[in-house]
């Protein structure tokens, strides 16, 4: 039901795969910026990197679901 709704809005599996790759890059950038900009040190930078890094599996999972739906 959700995959069908996403497909009907024009979202394709390639879009989700690209978002997954972008979130990996954003995770690294968030870690680096947080480490440089904040006084909290490496602990907070690690948390930011991990938080953003958790988005990638979600995007890749949606990409796989959409790819299976597109085969129909």
UniProtKB/TrEMBL annotation:
Entry keyword set: Membrane, Transmembrane, Transmembrane helix
Superkingdom of this protein's organism: Bacteria
Keyword hit for Transmembrane helix: yes
Transmembrane region(s): 16-33, 48-69
Name of this protein: Integral membrane protein
Organism, as annotated: Streptomyces solincola
Phylogenetic lineage: Bacteria, Bacillati, Actinomycetota, Actinomycetes, Kitasatosporales
